[in-house]
Amino acid sequence: MVDEATRRVVSEIPLLKTLASPRDKELWVQRLKEEYQALIKYVENNKNADNDWFRLESNKEGTRWFGKCWYIHDLLKYEFDVEFDIPITYPSTAPEIAIPELDGKTAKMYRGGKICLTEHFKPLWARNVPKFGLSHVMALGLGPWLVVEIPDLISKGLVEHKSK
């Protein structure tokens, strides 16, 4: 499922240790700290590899995440809002990432713009609880989804560059 380059990228993301959800008050704070450290490392690695492709931030509680992701196609940058909530059963359950503006434009998406990660990503996530975190969702979920879906949506005329 994962090529060697992806394995290398993911191997450089710190693994998380704390098994905690938003219900676990003090433990959740520790889990959030690990999440932020892993995200910072992943973003730094991406920048160093000239592969910067997203920004994320959260609400104060760390339960609602939002930001931007982008994809470069034919030297044009296509940028999208991205959002997700942390499930109450996190990290046993992976977050469902949504790109609301693409809702209804591809079969690989659920209502509300939630991207389809069922067949490939969710079994991988389940085998790696609690070691995987939000940076892994981005690297193994959203990133590959964008690479497959955005060029297809552009070729079908369903996504246009903002300059048009």
List the helices and strands and how they pair.
Blueprint: H1 4-11, H2 25-48, E1 54-58, E2 64-73, E3 76-85, E4 109-110, E5 114-115, H3 121-127, H4 134-155
Antiparallel strand pairs: 1-2, 2-3, 4-5
Summarize the structure.
The protein has 164 residues and is an alpha+beta fold.
Keywords:
single chain; 164 residues; alpha+beta; Ubiquitin Conjugating Enzyme; three-stranded antiparallel β-sheet; two-stranded antiparallel sheet; 4 helices; 18% strand; globular
Describe what this molecule looks like in 3D.
29% of the residues are buried. This protein has one domain: Ubiquitin Conjugating Enzyme, CATH 3.10.110.10. By secondary structure, it is of the alpha+beta class. The mean pLDDT is 93. It is built from four helices and five strands. It has helices at 4-11, 25-48, 121-127, 134-155; strands at residues 54-58, 64-73, 76-85, 109-110, 114-115.
- Enumerate the spans where pLDDT stays under 50 for 5 or more consecutive residues: none
When the domains are counted, the total is: 1
- Secondary structure tally, helices: 4
**Radius of gyration, whole Å:** 16 Å
CATH topology assignment: Ubiquitin Conjugating Enzyme
Identify the strand order in the major beta sheet: 1-2-3
Q: What kind of sheet is the major sheet?
A: 3 strands, antiparallel
SSE pattern: HHEEEEEHH
User: Which structural class do the helices and strands define?
Assistant: alpha+beta
CATH architecture: Roll
Query: What is the end-to-end distance?
Result: 36 Å
Total DSSP E strands: 5
